[in-house]
Design goal:
Blueprint: E1 41-45, H1 49-63, E2 71-75, H2 86-91, E3 99-102, E4 109-112, H3 114-125, H4 133-163, H5 169-190, H6 203-216, H7 224-228, H8 234-244, H9 247-254
Parallel strand pairs: 1-2
Antiparallel strand pairs: 1-3, 3-4
Helix pairs in contact: 1-3, 1-6, 1-9, 4-5, 4-6, 5-8, 6-8
Domain GST C-terminal: 132-262
Domain GST N-terminal: 42-129
InterPro entries: Glutathione-S-Trfase_C-like (IPR010987), Glutathione-S-Trfase_C_sf (IPR036282), Glutathione_S-Trfase (IPR040079), Glutathione_S-Trfase_N (IPR004045), Thioredoxin-like_sf (IPR036249)
C-alpha cells in the first residue's frame, strides 16, 4: 500500500466521476415534492439506527395512550440520494435522516437530528422525560452522550469494519478500542440500574438502544458482535434484550414505510 502524502490543499478527486453520494458541499441537488399525509406528524426517514429512534418513540407514545402521536412515515432512500431533494433539504439543510414536520403546531414546524426529535416529542407530550430536575438532567446527559458517541460506532467502527473498500488495521483498531470502551461504560452503568437513567425507561434508552442494543444483539454489521465480544458485556446484553421485548420497540422496528411515489 502506497503511503498517503497530504497535499497542501485538499481536492475532491472524484468530482468528475462520482455524481452521487456524499460531496464536500451542502444543499439541494434536484427539485423534489415530498408527499404529505393526513397525520399530524410527517416523518421522512429510513430504518437505520438513527431512523428507528423516532419510529420507536412514536410507537412508545402510542403505547402510553397518546392518541395525538399519529404519524406517516416515508422512505428516504439515501442510496438513491433522496436526502438531497429540495423539499427534504428545506426540512433538514444537513441532508440527513430522520426529518420530521409537526403540522399540529400553529404553523408547520421542522425538526431534524434524531436527538432533537426525541427531545421535542418528549417535551410536547410530557412523556419519557422525567420532570424531576436531577433525573431530567441525567436523561439529557445520556441523550447527548449518545449523539456525540454514536459516530465513533457508525462512521468509525462500522464504516471501517463493514464498508471500507479494504480492511485497514489502524482505523479498525482505533475505532474498535473506542467502541469497546463505550460498551464497557454502558455495562458498568447498567450494572447498577435497570435503565440508563435509573428505574425509569426514557428517551435516553431509546437513543442508546437503537445503536448499542442493536449492536449487542448482532443486528448491526455482520460478524461485529463476535468481533467485539459483546457477550462479555452481560449487563448491556440483559438491558438490550429487555428493551427489545417492549411492544413499542417491536412496533417501531416493524413499521411500514410509505414510498415517496405514493
Amino acid at each position: 500500500m502506497t503511503a498517503y502524502e497530504k497535499p497542501k490543499v485538499w481536492k475532491w478527486e472524484d468530482e468528475e466521476l462520482n455524481k452521487g453520494g456524499n460531496r464536500p458541499t451542502a444543499g439541494a441537488r434536484f427539485e423534489q415534492t415530498l408527499p404529505v399525509g393526513e397525520a399530524p406528524f410527517q416523518l421522512y426517514s429510513l430504518g437505520t439506527p438513527n431512523g428507528i429512534k423516532v419510529t420507536i418513540m412514536f410507537e412508545e407514545l402510542k403505547e402510553l395512550g397518546i392518541v395525538d402521536a399519529d404519524y406517516d412515515v416515508y422512505t428516504i432512500n439515501i442510496g438513491k440520494d433522496d436526502q438531497f431533494g429540495s423539499d427534504f433539504v428545506k426540512i433538514n439543510p444537513n441532508s440527513k435522516i430522520p426529518a420530521l414536520v409537526d403540522y399540529s403546531a400553529d404553523k408547520p414546524l421542522n425538526i431534524f437530528e434524531s436527538g432533537s426529535i426525541l427531545l421535542y416529542l418528549a417535551e410536547k407530550f410530557n412523556k419519557l422525560l422525567p420532570n424531576d430536575l436531577h433525573e431530567r438532567t441525567e436523561t439529557l446527559n445520556w441523550l447527548f452522550w449518545q449523539v456525540g458517541a454514536g459516530p465513533y460506532v457508525g462512521g468509525g467502527f462500522g464504516h471501517f469494519f463493514a464498508y471500507a473498500p479494504e480492511p485497514l488495521q489502524y482505523p479498525i483498531d482505533r475505532f474498535t478500542m473506542e467502541t469497546k470502551r463505550q460498551l464497557d461504560l454502558l455495562d458498568k452503568t447498567l450494572a447498577e440500574r435497570p435503565y440508563i437513567v435509573g428505574e425509569t425507561y426514557t428517551i435516553a434508552d431509546i437513543a442508546i438502544w437503537s445503536w448499542y442494543g442493536r449492536l449487542a444483539m448482532g443486528d448491526l454489521y455482520e460478524g461485529s458482535a463476535e468481533f467485539l465480544d459483546v457477550a462479555s458485556y452481560k449487563h448491556v446484553m440483559e438491558w438490550s434484550k429487555r428493551i427489545s421485548e417492549r411492544p413499542g420497540v417491536q412496533k417501531g422496528l416493524a413499521v411500514a414505510y410509505k414510498s415517496l411515489e405514493n
